[in-house]
Every structure is written in C-alpha cells, then in structure tokens.
Amino acid sequence: MDQFIQLVEASQVRNDLPDIHPGDTVKLQLKVIEGEKERLQAFEGVIISDKGMGTSKTITVRKISNGVGVERIIPLCSPNIESITVLRKGKTRRAKLSYLRKRTGKAALKVKERKVFTPSK
Predict the structure, then answer these.
(1) Do residues 17 and 76 touch, judged by C-beta distance below 8 A?
(2) Where is 42: in which H helix or E strand?
(3) Which of 36, 66, 71, 114 suits 97 as a labelling partner, its CA being 20 to 30 A distant?
(4) Can you give the residue ranges of every domain in the chain?
(5) What's the CATH architecture for 2-93?
(6) pTM of structure
C-alpha cells in the first residue's frame, strides 16, 4: 500500500518549479477565479518557512502591504500556481524566519543576499 501511495505522489509532484529556500524573495503568479473569469494575481514577498515534502509541501510567503504584514500559505503542488520567479536569493541560518514578523518597515523584509557562484569558462 505504501508503494502505491508513493507512486501516485510521484506522478503529481511538479518539476517545473525553481529551487527555493527560506529567505528567498519570490514573485508568484497565482490563478484567481472570479465567477466565470480567470485572471493572474501577483504576490511578491519573502519565504519565511517551508514545510512538508512531496505533494504536501507548502511555503509561507510574507509581504508588507500598506504597512500591514500579509502572509500566504501556498501548497507547491497546487494547479493554481502559474509560475514562481526567484527575485533574490537570501542567506539565512534558520529554517523558519518567524523573527521577521516582529520587525516593521524596511527591516521586516531585510535578509542578507546569498552570493551565487557560476563557474567561469
């Protein structure tokens, strides 16, 4: 039975998403259905946590909107995710960045940037 569950989950895991970690600043394009119309809604913020694995993996994205902190928990295998773009890689020593909730203003989104090395030819 356990092998059957793993087989079904393996077929539903999305492979088109980038490698993301807590501290990264991302821009999500989410499908929103209003009545019979469907549109894309952008949500840009810092990933403060990720949880789970496989089809049950979720991320929590936090942004400051008009001085108010807004968090969204997004399942990564959701068909409502159109795309995820990594705007900035963050350097953190924690898996959960809940300390960002206490900060206000620009400091609420401030995470050191991680240097990404690319091999030279």
Answers:
(1) yes
(2) strand 37-51
(3) 66
(4) 2-93
(5) Roll (2.30)
(6) 0.83
